[in-house]
Structure formats: C-alpha cells, structure tokens
Amino acid sequence: MKVMNALRARSVLTALALVVAPGVAVVGTATDASAVTKISQATAESMFRQVGITWSSSGNCTDRYNSTCTSFEQLNLATAQGAQTLKKASGCALNITGGTEVGHASGTYSHWNGYKLDYSKYSCIGTYIKTYFTYIGLRGDGAPQWQSGSGNVYADEGTHWDVTYYNCGGC
After folding, report:
1. Band (34; pLDDT cuts 50, 70, 90)
2. Where are the beta strands (DSSP E) in the chain?
3. Sheet with 24-27: strands ordered across
C-alpha cells in the first residue's frame, strides 16, 4: 500500500509540474528526499534569458548526445536557479559553455546528471568567486576550488569555471 501511495503522489506531482510549468519533470517520489526536478532545454533557455545569461557551443547546437553542443536537456531546476542566483548576486556577464551534453566526466554530481555548468572565464566572475567564496583547496585533478556559503563548488579548470550546484544558491 505504501508503494501505491508513493506512486500516486509521484503521478500527482508530475501532472502538477506539467500544468504549472511545462517542460518541468519531477523525478522521485513525494517521500524521496533526493527527488530532483529536471527541466527541458526550452525552460532552461527561458530562465537564463530572464536574467541575461548567454550560452554558446563550438558546434552551435543543443544536442545532448553531441559533445560539441551545449545542452540543457535534463538540467536540474536547482542548477538553473543557481546560475540565476550567481548572475544576480555578481552582476557579471555569464556565458555557459557546458551543460548536460556528453563528453564530461561521469559521476553522481556530473554534467550529464544535471548538477554542473561550465562558464566562460571572464575576469569579473573570477574576481567575484575568489572574493566572496571560500577557497577549499585543490580538486583531485589539481583544479583550485572555492565554495559558496550555500555549498556549491566552483572549480577553476584553467580555460573555464566548472560549477557543481548542490542547490539553488539561496534563490
């Protein structure tokens, strides 16, 4: 019976998400603490446009299965909100160069799973991150990292910022 109630709750949440916000999908159940809300390419683009975030790809495309594209398909809602929070808080230009497309490292908190975005390395955003976030040392691959007060991690990969969003950054 507990499983049936959880499935009903999930169906209701999914239906509600589609009515309230087309392009948004709820993954998990109402009783699942790790439930993650996934969004579509169109929803992410709309959210980014609202705050002036741009995006680009070497292939000038959005195909999730092409590594030269920059895709937002299956991006976590909290990740998109985290990008909006960063843009609003910093006032800096933000250009996304990596999303949920293939070609990034795997793992639970990966690009593919919707937790990460890559940003162009502009001086304004770099100064903001290094001024307002806490340096937490080098990542396993040697990239220096900073952590925001909300727990999101910003890694300087040399040519771009690789950001892991565990939450929306206080949205």
Report:
1. low
2. 24-27, 36-39, 54-55, 75-76, 95-98, 116-120, 134-138, 144-147, 153-156, 160-164
3. 24-27, 36-39, 75-76
